[in-house]
Amino acid sequence: MDKTRPIIIFKKKRGHGGHHGGAWKVAYADFVTAMMSLFIVLWLLNSSKPIQEAVGGYFRDPNGTASKKGSTLAGSGENLILTKDNMPKLKDQLEQKIHEMIDFEKLKNHIEMTVTSEGLRIELMESASGTLFDIGSPKLNHDGREVLIALAQELGKLPNKLSIEGHTDSKPYATSGTYSNWELSSERANATRRLMQANGVGANQVSQVRGFADQRLRNSANSLDPSNRRISLIVQYIAKNNDEDAKPSAAAEQKKLDEKSPTAAPPQTSGKKE
Question: Is 177 a residue whose pLDDT tops 60?
């Protein structure tokens, strides 16, 4: 009897490899973050300057606390409060901005900035042929619009209030009737306000618009001097908050109360011995 050998089949069970963990997720997240940063940088490089300043201001002050220190209305993040201590800094910045204008050589003798007790006073003076406005009219010409827009874009970044004044010389207004230098100076000041508020100055930033006619002559020796016809912009100071410094300490208050209260009389001793 033939004996056949049994056929033995070995089946090898192959399992999956061990758990590799989530290391790949970390690497992928780093890659996605790097790509996002790249695209943000490329977007910023092609965006306008106000957007770049706004994004930079956010990263400098993400909590928005800069508004307590006088952050700009345009969101530049410069956090500049203008007091008597740093008003000359604004004067230098505005002069530099005006120097960059195309027609600066033509306008440089008609713009003057001085730091006064009110704040920074910017005088925009007329010439005999009319530098800012058409002759005898409240309509701004090209040069006037250009310089006011440049100033509005810078002053609009500040928390400071603005006053706008219109002035004329003593030459009577040409047309007869009720229209006079009073109306002309007021309308020129208002035209300045409208243009500046349309180009950066905040709606609530202008505190006063005044027309003085010929009552505040720049050159009193010559009331017909064209420089008497001018627009004055006053950037008003912001008072420092010294409430905490002025507030007396509790110990000082107690000392004042002790000084005001009558002193206790020493106990009287009788001449009688115990």
Answer: yes
